[in-house]
Amino acid sequence: MSAEALLQQLEWTVLRRLIGLLQGDHKTLFRGSGVDLADLREYQAHDDVRHIDWNVTARMQSPYVREHQEDREISAWFLLDLSGSMDFGSGNISKRQMMMQFVGVMAKLLMKRGNRIGALLLNPAETDGFQCIPPRMGRRHLLHLLHVLETSPNIQKTHQTNLNEWLARANGLIKRRSSVFVVSDFMGQFNWASELSALGRRHDTVATRLFDPAEMNLPKAGLMLLQDSETSEQLLLDTANTKFRHRYAQLVEEREMQLATCFAQAGVDALELSTNEDMANALMRFSELRKRRVWRA
Question: Model-level pTM?
């Protein structure tokens, strides 16, 4: 499906449903970076505790928060992982196609609020492994980004993807406070935690983790020849072996716990997206997550 056709499909399906469900309340999806005081009001359950005005709270004997004038003219950056593992998909769509849907929906919502969107791609097809698309607005700009995601070739590497170097590049590139979406399956080593933490301290950062159900639950299909999508290493596995399946399930559980710990320690929101999940439902879940978020003081 072309970038134009994909965007039209998203506009008629996901975006129409999502805007109707949100009923105009985009504050749970995006936060401004303004500092000018606009008003004071009573504290609500989903408010950032750092915005409590303790002087007013003491006088009124009830928690009050400061509301700031929202700066909508901020940049939103998509950090997009185009490494080999992102082309895997056991069903109708791959993780890369799910990424395109996510970018299309979020970018449209962001630009509707006056935000520019840019991207830093972890792209093996590029000479240095990275591709930067500077922040701009407009449908043509979004179509260009989706076209790059659609057409970038899957070039096999003989080493694991270096997410740490990718995030370090983003930390050096994005100077002004921005909304940042790190979109990846986060495969490989966990050497990227400190860079993600640095990104989370400077920007409103969301780790968007894509996965396929077959990666979480190995199908019971007898002998299977599996190939690592990034190193090209091949293994012949007996998926009917009970001990092997049990060990695989243990490793998956351990990795899930490591990921959750890394995201929590980095202080970033984590959005899990499965290739068999409805995009509108996933983003509504994200909206609820933002409402319930407990900010660190």
Answer: 0.79
